[in-house]
Amino acid sequence: MPTDRLSVVLKAMAAADGGSSxxxxxxxxxxxxxxxSLSGAGLSLMVDGELRGTAGVSDPGIAVVQELQLTxxxxxxxxxxxxRAQVLEADLADPAVVRWPVFAQAGVDAGxxxxxxxxxxxxxxxxxxxxxxxxxxxxxxxxxxxxSLVLADVATHMVLGLQAGTPPGExxxxxxxxxxxxAEIHQATGMVSVQLGVxxxxxxxxxRAHAFAESxxxxxxxREIVMRRLRLTETA
Amino acid sequence: xxxxxELADTMVEDFDVVEFLHRLSERCVELLDCAEAGLLxxxxxxxxxxxxxxxERSDALDLLQSQNEEGPCFECYRRGVPxxxxxxxxxxxxxxxxxxxxxxxxxxxxxxxxxxxRDETVGxxxxxxxxxxxxxxxxxxxxxxxxDIAAIALLQERTLRQAHGVVGQLQGALTSRVxxxxxxxxxxxxxxxxxxxxxxxxxxxxxxxxxRLSNVARELIDGHLDAASLSDPALGASTPKR
Lengths: 236, 242
Fold this sequence. Notes:
The complex is a heterodimer. By secondary structure, chain A is of the alpha+beta class. Chain A has nine helices and five strands. Chain A has a five-stranded antiparallel β-sheet, with helices on both faces. In chain A, a hairpin with a 2-residue loop joins strand 1 (40-47) and strand 2. In chain B, helix 2 (17-31) runs antiparallel to helix 6 (139-191), helix 6 packs across helix 8 and helix 7 crosses helix 8 (213-222). Chain B is rod-shaped, with a radius of gyration of 30 Å. Chain B folds into two domains: 2-162, GAF domain (Beta-Lactamase), CATH 3.30.450.40; 170-235, Arc Repressor Mutant, subunit A (Orthogonal Bundle). Chain B has helices at 2-9, 17-31, 56-68, 72-79, 98-104, 139-191, 195-208, 213-222, and strands at 36-42, 48-53, 83-85, 109-117, 120-129. The model of chain B is unreliable at 4-13 and 237-242 (pLDDT under 50). The longest helix of chain B has 53 residues, at 139-191. In chain B, strand 4 (109-117) and strand 5 form a beta hairpin. A five-stranded antiparallel β-sheet of chain B has the order 2-1-5-4-3. Chain A binds chain B through residues 45, 47, 52-53, 122-125, 127, 159-160, 163-164, 166, 168-171, 176, 183, 186-195, 200, 226, and chain B through 12-15, 156, 159-160, 162-164, 166-167, 169-178, 181-190, 195, 212, 214, 221.
């Protein structure tokens, strides 16, 4: 019964109140973790298939995994957005899972063994993706899948509801939950574009390529660039 | 049942509610024992407006009802219950304007079914028949189903329209935020300063020229705004003269 699931979700959200989770979007993520015995949940807002911000996370640890998808340019968020459907990866450690080789490895390293992503959609409208993380492999049950869809639905309305009263050009403050390095990645992109005389898109690709080549997290490379301890060269 | 599926499919993408209601009225004619069908909806002031009709003929009759506040549809909307006339020629006292006109146009009987959203009646579906008598029993649930679908479609359209506005605004804000960070980096590199100092200059420039920060950021990135024209706020050179 959908109404029963909705009331269970709303109760779990109410119970999630307190602690550091002041944002209703964080509370949706915490409720997801409680209801579906997850290791974490995160919600990314997207524009034209690109991650544009993290609106909510169940805990700061999972924010790093969620943000990994921005730095890697691959992962369940992009796939769920593009396919307009849920993306269910029940075993990230399975070598047959080649969908996102780098993300899968990084996920496993961070203790994530299964990942389930749900587009936040309303009719033809898409605003982002809710990602559920588990530290054990295995499919979601039919009941868990149904709860996930209700959670994504609630999250969609929460995001739109929060943003509805915000002045044009501004993002509601409760929808900006990305880790501190988020800004540095975009700042570094701007700096690299001037240093190399390339477009911002190209600069971001170079940044990502450098991080990959050096086996460093993108946020670490970005920080070095912003602190002017690293300067990418033409051949990087 | 197929009609419901087909109609439901069209309710997802590129949803045009007027087109949808027109198709719905055409389907009523195909599926129900009626010659024409029309949909009237109450506007914000509670006045019935013609939304869709299967033909010009029923359109004219619906218009007549909304103008004269008389007729089965009007009664159905006011009372929130189905209203019918088995023989319009016998109901000229009941509806002095509507009944003779309908008969003149070739109709003998009419059914009006309320369109309800939760407990509120928002309009009515009119089924016009060329013969006298009542709609057959098994057609009644289907007729009510059609009226319910029309009501759901209207609700969905309202939600989607509101959401579209917020989504555009949300996407603009998300993009602006990234552009502002990128512009900090661009200016920091061009002016050989730190990103915090770059942000302070952008903000001062935006304030002094009454511009949005995101516009200043875009101009910096596009190269329309020179790094040199954004001076150090500590020097106060950017402050407009009074």
